[in-house]
Each structure stands twice: as C-alpha cells, then as structure tokens.
Amino acid sequence: MLATALSFVGQQYPQATGEDFTGHHVASYVRGELANAIRDALGTKSSSYIVKGSAGQSTWAAVPWASIFDPLVTSGAQTGYYVVYLFASDGKRVFLSLNQGATAVEREFGRGRRDSVLRDRAALMRARLPEFLEGFDLPAIDLASTANLPLGYMAGHALGKAYEITSLPSEADLRSDLEHILHAYSALTFRGGLEPSPEAGALDEDVPPGSSVIETRQYKFHRRIDRHPQASRMAKQHHGTRCQGCGLSFGERYGTLGEGFIEAHHLKPLSSLKEGETFQYDVKKDFAVLCSNCHRMIHRTSDSSDLEAFKKLLVTA
C-alpha cells in the first residue's frame, strides 16, 4: 500500500539517520518496498516508467526520495524533469512534486546561479500546465533542510501537493493524485518540456511550414521517441543496421567508423500521438531503421508512418 510505505518512511527516517547507514533496513525499505508500492499504484502503466527510491549513497541523504522517471525525458534525478515523493528531513511531511534535475543545471551554470535557473524553469513548467494548477497549486515546498541537494529540490519544484505524515489521505486519493500528476508530466513533455518556445519566424527543419501548435508538438514528440536510446537499441537488435529505405549499410560505406550505426524511426502516425498518454511500443511493428538521409526525408512526407509509400518515392540511379 502506498499510504503504508509513505507513512513508514516519514516516521522512521529521522531516527534512522542517527544510526549506521550500511545495511540499514530503512534505507533498504526506501529502495525496495517504497519503490514497489509506487509501481503497484501505477498498475499497468508501471512498465512505461522507471521507479527508483534513494536514502543516499554510502551515507544518509538529508532528504529521502522516490521518483518516477519517463525514459523519454530522463532515467535519473540529475537531469531532465520527473515526478518525485520528497520527504522533509524532520519526517513531518512528504511532498508529491513535479521537479527537475538540479545536478545538470549546477554543472552548466554553477552553484551560485543554479537555484535561480531552476526557479525560472519551474515557472515555465507551470506556465505550460495551467489547467493542472487547480489540483496542484503548491508554489513552494519546505524540506526542513539547508543542505545543498534539498535546496535544489526546493528550487526545482514546479507543482504538486503536500501531505502530513500523521494524516495521509486515503489510498484511493493518493493513487488519484499520482495518476493526475503523471498526466501533467506527460502533458509537459508533449508541450515541449523545458525547451523554450521557438521565436516567431524561426525555422525548424523537423516541423513542416504552416504546422499548427498541436501538429508542431506532435512532430517534436515523434522526434523525441525516435531518439529514445532504449528504443533505438532494441530497433537495431530486431531490424539490423541496414537502412530499410534505401538499403544503405554504414559499415559497408564507411568501414569500421560506420559499423553498427543506424537511426530508429517511429512508425506510428503523428495523429495517433495524444497529449497526456503514456508511450508504449512494439519494436517489431512500431519502429523501422533508416539511414540519416532517409530519416530526414521521410519526415518531409505527408505520412511519416508509411514506409512502403516512402520507398516508392526513392529514385534509383
């Protein structure tokens, strides 16, 4: 039960941090039982996400957490944006938060500018999700800690809810909140994530001229799926590395430099990509492998999901 797991961590963690970290059952609980409770709450959607819990590495974290990562966005808490349960260091509250990776921001902008950049990006996230603010209108979180990582979590928070550990909502309400914030997570990705809006008149070779806002979002989301590392790896394992459009083998053309190189192309029609839906795929049916030229060209056709029609357009020398 999600409520049981959240309550256990909130009540047990503060005392546990005064004891030896190695092999401690509370740290194991955060990594195991808490993460499993979240997977159980996700139900059939759990396979679409990566779920991780952490109480620290080699020593206690000031703030324990359990995160849900969309592989299209990130696979860990250092980069991108994600949904996370963050426990206040005093154990009194747990926050359900749409948050972002502070480590990558600190690496790029430095510690001094990190939090201001995170707050600016959190404002962009909220601006892209106005209809979700009614249920998750929590503009700031207080993790009762002045440690570096918790300060980053607090600056990176975009929207969410706060729960008192001693009076958690019902299991049904906790699961409903989780489902709702994951809908916001998926919607944010579809709407551009953390990427700034393109300037008026700016060209984007991935997007046909004259595309509507929804069509532009569909094209960009489609390209995000194309570039998904796991999907690309599995597509190559199933389809090989010879272009299914023109037949080019990078290994044959470029020798050892090109061996194993090919690009994955998502075959589902753009119109089928809906905002807020979790992405699931069948590598055999939903992906093809294409060389770089064919991949760019198929995206210029009226239906980038129709590989056979694209092949008929190829001009043979």
TrEMBL record:
<dbReference type="InterPro" id="IPR003615">
    <property type="entry name" value="HNH_nuc"/>
</dbReference>
<dbReference type="Pfam" id="PF12102">
    <property type="entry name" value="MrcB_N"/>
</dbReference>
<feature type="domain" description="Type IV methyl-directed restriction enzyme EcoKMcrB subunit DNA-binding">
    <location>
        <begin position="11"/>
        <end position="188"/>
    </location>
</feature>
<dbReference type="InterPro" id="IPR021961">
    <property type="entry name" value="McrB_DNA-bd"/>
</dbReference>
<protein>
    <submittedName>
        <fullName>DUF3578 domain-containing protein</fullName>
    </submittedName>
</protein>
